[in-house]
Amino acid sequence: MKKLTITALALASTMMTTPVLADGHGSKIVDEPLELTIHMHHKRYTSYDEDWPVEQTAREMTNIHLKNKTFGSNTPQSDEAINLLLASGQLPDIIGTSRIRDVVNQYGPQGAFTPLNDLIEEHAPHMKAYFDSHPDVKSAITSSDGNMYYIPYLPDGKYGRAYFIRYDWVEKLGLEIPNNVDELKTVLEAFRDGDPNGNGKKDEVPYFARQWEELIRLVTLWDGRSSGSDTYHDYYVTDGKLAHPYAGEGYREGIKNLAEWYAEGLIDAEIFTRGSSSREFLLSENMGGMTHDWFASTSGYNRLSADIEGFSFKAFAPPASISGKRIEEHRRIPFKPDGWAMGGTNEHPVETIKYFDFWFSPEGRDLVNFGVEGAQYTLVDGEPQFTQEFLDAGPVNSSLYQIGAQLHARGYFQDYEYEKQWSNEFALEGIALYDEGDYLIDQFLGVSLNADEQKVYDKYNAQLRTYMLERQQAWILGTGDVEADWADYQAQLENRGYSKVLEVMQAAYDRQYN
Amino acid sequence: MQKKLAWFLQHMRREWQIYVLLAPTIIWFILFLYKPMYGLQIAFKDYSIFRGIAGSPWVGFEHFQTLFESDTFVRALKNTVIISALSMMFGFPMPIILALMFNEILNQTYKKTAQTLVYLPHFISTVIIAGIVVTAFSPSAGIVNTIIGWFGIEPIYFLTKPEWFRPIFIGSGIWQEAGFSSIVFLAAIAGVNPSLYESAVVDGASRWQMMWKITLPSIMPTIIIMLIIRIGNILEIGFELVILLYQPATYQTADVINTFIYRQGLQGGQYDVAAAAGLFNAVVAFVLVMTANTISRRVSRTSLW
């Protein structure tokens, strides 16, 4: 009887693997199972788990068996963990972590990581196809010695943040959704004075933001810039020339006006200290009027219409700037500094690169984006569709982490379809609006500095930024006057090495992107 | 030589228990204080984690030069000294005053309750303390602005005003730690010989006189030793609270050496520069302790060594 059961099991398991083989894609990389070691660290999952269903399926499909060799699993800080790993001197075959870009660019040229260019060229058709069609991403992840040392997590979908406003308040006050900066000011003044929440108190907060940097973002309405990428205070690029947004004329004009808005009470008086809970608090207390925040999560607040009569907080097109330009400065970056790399002592580089490539193949992409077929999704007309049961089970993204899908410490290409299937209608409506207007602008994807350039950058950049932010807040809060201080400010930036930093970054940029 | 060895063996055989008791402390010192000193050399090297301490090239005093050429570092140094000096001036006497006050409470239940209440803030995590401070000083809902509002004063956005940072920081530090620090002084007071008080009572001394003439002089050695230790830590400011409370708008008065190291060194991965700043910190602290100890030995004959 026992023998029979085992036979039945064996039969069943061959039946399960058969379709994969029959597909003829030949996703098996090696005939005999091969073990590779991996360090995988992310704040949400601080070590690699062989039991993740996605990993089990991948193992079956590729015959590559990953073994957990993660350092620093007891800390949620991935940068600490990777430093511990590097200091130990024993790198595993694969290293996957958040913020791996700086690490590989710094230590790759010293031999800690295996260069990937030739391997991709020869053994990784799917990744090669991706990089051939995205030369800018390829340039961006290329290190100062001309090699690529990591495969990034590549988010899909362009949109990140958008302007949101209380449509019901605008309507109640007999106004129109603002089309330009002057109309915006009128609307915010009406929010302040017109008591749109109808409680008889002047407690409305016209513009608020979870991150105070989103206040600075408004300088785009005066043709200034606040950042060139999806991180705050970053350099930006126009016509191949790098500059810092906080040194430009538009910025000066923007700050001057924002300081007035702040003084007039159009901006949340506590914007610098209210912090991350401000959106939750001000919206549910029926006090907040407008913000600039993420599409998906901000649209979710429309659930408040159950408690607040008429509540409608939706995205509106970026108001035109003083020169008539409508731009949305924030967007999702096409690649993240997270992903995975190959250790410098890896003895199976060909198998490893083929394994990396597996996740870019159609089967691998479905697996990493949607989970296991039959469990989390089914194929509907050949396209993966989450099962209703899985969608109802709770927050989709955290359920996916738990089964080992959508892990950002892995190099893979996201499929926006995965997110679309659980985005709410207001978010999709807003994205359609932004798509129509084509408001996004090009981003600065970062530069890979060589050792000497890095030294210059390290020496000046931190204190340069400290100074910029100090002056910025002082101007907004009214303890300084941007018009009067401007010449001195420029001179101080120069003193603190602004053009030296710019020079090394420009050199790196020219090397990398031309 | 033979004789000495024999004496040593005999000594060890007789006193070994004491050495066993001493061992954990010595091992702790070697592992956590002496061994890491090897790593201090990265302050003089162009450090790469991957190459390791021994494999990184020497750069001499380059990192120290970088530090002192930076206006931000010099300002941070100045702020550190000012904040420390002020918090010593206002913060150091508080636990002593508290201990003396507790000592005067006769009702035991009341005394225990009061003590527990002032110890409590010590056990609250810094993040929560920062949250309490931010809320208390908020211009719209904070209790401080509500109270000054009763007197017709316009709300002040305290946490963005450079001139308010130090009072708020030092005040919240005192609120959190004064109670707990008073324990050591209470212990010292408990050790005062009761016969001194008895004879004072016989001589008709008032409680006030007993406090000034007996209690304070008796605990003076403890006070001085605590003061010397405190001086040694003058450059060590609890920087978590600074990071949680400061803003670019208040860097001017709030940025201290440790927050500077944090921004420059750890966020940017410049361990060598951070180590140089840390070493500088330690050298200054060493000089300060030596000075304080010498002065104290000359003046009051109390000293750490």
Task: Please summarize what this structure is.
The complex is a heterodimer of chains A (514) and B (305). Helices cover 44% and strands 11% of the residues of chain A.
Task: Give structural attributes.
A: alpha/beta, D-Maltodextrin-Binding Protein, domain 2, 13 strands, disordered N terminus, B: about 300 residues, mainly alpha, MetI-like fold, 15 helices
Account of the protein in words:
The complex is a heterodimer of chains A (514) and B (305). Chain A is an alpha/beta fold. Chain A has a domain at 34-154 and 340-414: Periplasmic binding protein-like II (D-Maltodextrin-Binding Protein, domain 2, 3-Layer(aba) Sandwich), CATH 3.40.190. Helices cover 44% and strands 11% of the residues of chain A. Chain A is built from 22 helices and 13 strands. In chain A, a hairpin with a 2-residue loop joins strand 7 (236-238) and strand 8 (241-243). Mean pLDDT of chain A is 90; it is low at 1-25. By secondary structure, chain B is an all-alpha fold. Chain B has a single domain, classed as MetI-like (MetI-like fold). In chain B, helix 4 (71-91) crosses helix 9, helix 5 crosses helix 9 and helix 7 runs parallel beside helix 12 (239-245). Chain B has helices at residues 2-34, 52-55, 62-69, 71-91, 93-104, 108-119, 126-136, 143-150, 162-190, 194-202, 207-232, 239-245, 251-254, 257-266, 271-300. Chain B is flat and about 75 Å long. Chain B is 73% helix and 0% strand.
